[in-house]
Design brief:
By secondary structure, the chain is mainly beta. It has a single domain (20-127), classed as Immunoglobulin-like (Sandwich), CATH 2.60.40. It is 13% helix and 48% strand. It has one helix at 2-18; strands at 21-24, 31-35, 39-46, 53-59, 66-74, 85-93, 97-106, 118-127. The longest helix is centred in the first third of the chain and has 17 residues, at 2-18. It starts with a helix and ends with a strand.
């Protein structure tokens, strides 16, 4: 009985550890403590039919705390033409350190205006 309980507890903890940490626009400006090895997914609303898209920047630029950054777009289930969806940025925290991820929502062929373009800022403090 005791071994079965321990095995079940380990399975639950492993499943929780494997689930990525989710960040959305409601978390803009927040700092998160993430364990090394943790996976993070940033989810922001995006509508590329308008020409606008999220462009992400990491500071410091030469950081080695977050790796495997991957971006994807998830289309809406809406039947309407031009309906927006969700941009996802995912990465893995690999070593202790602090990194700020800043996203700007703008048209990439136009000059970025850091004063007026929509911005989302998330800081990740990775601990061992």
């Amino acid at each position: 009985m005791k071994k079965a309980l321990i095995a079940a507890l380990c399975a639950v903890l492993s499943a929780c550890a494997a689930a990525p940490f989710q960040v959305t626009e409601q978390n803009n400006g927040e700092t998160f403590v993430i364990p090394a090895g943790g996976r993070v997914v940033v989810r922001l609303p995006e509508n590329p039919t308008t020409g606008y898209s999220w462009q992400f920047f990491f500071f410091p630029h030469d950081q080695n705390v977050l790796t495997g950054a991957d971006e994807s777009y998830i289309a809406s289930d809406s039947p309407f033409l031009g309906a927006g969806g969700t941009k996802e940025l995912s990465f893995t925290a690999v070593r202790a350190g602090k990194v700020t991820v800043t996203g700007y929502y703008y048209r990439p062929w136009e000059k970025l205006n850091k004063q007026t373009d929509q911005k989302a800022v998330f800081t990740f403090d990775v601990v061992e």
